[in-house]
Amino acid sequence: MIQVIGHRGAAGLEPENTLRSYRKALEIGVDYVETDVYLTQDKHLIVMHDRTVDRTTNGTGSVEEMTFDEIRELDAGEGEQVPTLREVLELIKGKAKIHIELKGEGTPKPVVDTVREMDMVPDVVITSGNTERVKEVKGLCPDVAVEHIYGDPPPDAVERAVSAGAGRVSVNIRHITQEYVDAAHAAGLLVIAWPPNTEEEINHALSFGVDLICSDRPDVAMKVLGRA
């Protein structure tokens, strides 16, 4: 069965990376949600895609130069606060699994520690586009699943993922090729297409034989897959 990942929750339906967005994804019935993490200046793990808060909140500034309290005062959309990783894990535990993308510096160990503390290692895939960061996670927690993300995969994409201990790879739908998918499968890797959001884009991704769809519109993905 092709599995569905709610990208930043259900980012095409609700404010991305908010608890409201993750609740919507759970309501739709996704297999996984996807989230992004940074450390604040005072070392709190918060959920944010960009290096700054400018695009997704009513504030301005670099996440890593702001305190947790400063970020919590912001409106992330529809009156939602920027959540912590722990809050997202508490919400989805027992309901769905999760891909956690390491966006900021210094995130591997605190993410692994949080996942272990919550006894969620089997429910988590830790992801990054940085090969060394993926390797670091595997070194910290050999039991956790890891994924290597690529926008436009380099020629050695599969080899890099395998060398890092990854069990899956992501590719942006603008750069997906049959050659890449076949090579990943031959190496024993699952392939994720992100983020196809229309029926046409989702069917295009599926035509290559991908294993998971990571979409801002998980409702559309579930409909295309006959799982709505």
Any chance you could write out the topology, listing elements then pairs?
Layout: E1 3-6, H1 19-28, E2 32-39, E3 45-47, H2 68-72, H3 85-92, E4 97-102, H4 108-117, E5 124-128, H5 131-140, E6 145-150, H6 157-163, E7 168-172, H7 178-186, E8 190-194, H8 199-206, E9 212-215, H9 218-224
Parallel strand pairs: 1-2, 1-9, 2-4, 4-5, 5-6, 6-7, 7-8, 8-9
Antiparallel strand pairs: 2-3
Helix pairs in contact: 1-3
Task: Please tell me about this protein's structure.
The chain contains 9 helices and 9 strands. It is α/β, with parallel strands linked by helices. The two termini are 14 Å apart.
Write a short abstract of this structure.
The protein has helices at residues 19-28, 68-72, 85-92, 108-117, 131-140, 157-163, 178-186, 199-206, 218-224; strands at 3-6, 32-39, 45-47, 97-102, 124-128, 145-150, 168-172, 190-194, 212-215. The chain is of the alpha/beta class.
